[in-house]
Structures are given as C-alpha cells and as structure tokens.
Model the fold of this input.
Amino acid sequence: MHLSGHLGNAARTALGTIAVLTAFGSASASARVPLSLSESVIAAATSQMTCPTAPSQGIVLSQPAIAGPSLSKGAAILGGEMSALDRMRMQQSQSNEIAVIASPSLAVEPLQPAASGPRDCARPFGELAVSAAASPLDRLSNDDFLASKRVRIGRTNFDRDWRRVRSERISARPALRASAEGKATTELVSSVNRWVNRKIRYVEDRELYGRADYWAGARLTLLLGKGDCEDIALAKMQLLAAAGVPRRDMYLTIARDTVRRADHALLVVKLDDRYVVLDNTTDKLLDGRLSHDYNPVLSFNAEAAWLHGY
Done:
C-alpha cells in the first residue's frame, strides 16, 4: 500500500493536535484536520523512539576551580560589571564548595537505572508523570484500539475513496457457505478473516491498476481474486456487513508498519466490549488493545473518521 501521495505536511500539526487534546482531556472534541502525510514524515512521526542513556556511574564531587581575574564575555560587554549569569555561577560554585568542605566523608551511591527503563521521547509531555508501574494500556479508554488514542475529525484526503467503497452491498453467501453460516459473531468474524485471506491474493495497486493507490470495492476484489491490503480489508468489511455485523462497529484503519516500514491497512471490529484486528498477514484475530507493531494514523467507519495519536 503506497500512500505517499496522500500522507504529507499535516502530520506534525495533526499528531501535535491530538497530543495536546489528549493531555488536556479533550480527546472527544471534534477537529477538522487537513491530511496530507508523506511516508517519510509518518515514519518519523510514528517510529518508536527512546532516549539514549549513559552507563550508570557514581557521582564524583570535586571542588570547583576559582574563577581567575579574566573577564567573561558577558562582563566585557557590560564594561567590567559581573553579569547576572556570572553571579549565579559564582553562587553555585560557593554553595558546592561549602557542601564539600562541610561533609568531606560524604559517600554518594552510584545512580541506578530507572525502574521503567529509558524514557519514551515520543510520549506527550502530559503523560510523562505516569507511574512506572502503570501499563500504557491503562491510559486507553474502552473506545481506543491499537494502543492509541483517537479523536474525531472532519475531512481527509481519503474521503472520496472512502465514500465510493464504504456502502457497497454484496452477498455474504460465498463466504458463509465456505465457513461460518449460523455461527456466533466471533466465529463468524474469524471465519470471514480466514476465508478472505486465502481467497484474495495480495497484489500491489501499481501492478493491478497501474496507479500508486486505488481503493477497489469488495465486489471487484472478489471477482479478480486479488488486491492490496486495503482492498482485502474492505472485502472483509462488506462480507461481515452482509452477514449482519453493524457497519458502525467496523473500522478501516490505515497504519504504519514499524517493522516493515511500510503503509498498511487493517480491519478493526468491535465485538461486545472489545476490539479485534483482522490482518491479511495472519488468520488469527488479534487483540485490538495492542499495537502489533502498527502505528495507526486514520480510521474510517460508517459514521465518521478519526485521527490517532499516542
């Protein structure tokens, strides 16, 4: 799936917006964010980042050197007067000198690594105070999935494609005959996921349609027996809708695969009070709370579109 033509300069603004909304408790607010994210920006915005950490060492206190008669650059500019910065430095030096003299036998234990490991630089500032013992999943609500928060937005550059394919009506009979007719919802979803993964062969849009990105309807994808990741996800969505799964409970999610460093599309389905992820790379239903090495960017369902943040 190639989305470089759609995913562009609004990534920093959009992801920054959701971080601010999340930090201030306004994740439910409606936002209108133009979307045009380039692949390189998404990779930078969504890749996993950790701060480099220096090896643990003991703290060594030594008496600071006394400043000589030469003037600092600030003092020279001030005509020989000591600058405020120089006064602060001198006060700190004197304070440290007194502390060392007053406690010559002070034993300082080496610093130990934090219990939580390296700090995640990509996390919003408002989340840095979360206890090290708390799980990242604890910050998510029951309406969040793929280890991300989401806010409802107005328009995206994918809207025309989504409107063209979201309401297509097809028969679920082929999939049901082959798999799950009369089964419970979870078994139905699992069977349709498995049936489509085996029925539809993955082929890039450029090879199939001669263009970088094209959202094919489920009927065309099933007829050809081939398509790329969003075509496969859409085929699953339409088959499940035809089998009775509410359209409002299904989300076409565009994400960044952080392992393969490529754009990808998934189908997320709400089953009772939990979410499951249908991926063309596996026949298993994945736990929707976890990221599975994906950074979701946008999600669409029958009611709206959402922007994800972390």
Notes: The domain at 10-48+124-309 is CATH 3.10.620.30 (C8orf32 fold). The first helix runs from residue 10 to 23. The chain is about 30% helix and 15% strand.
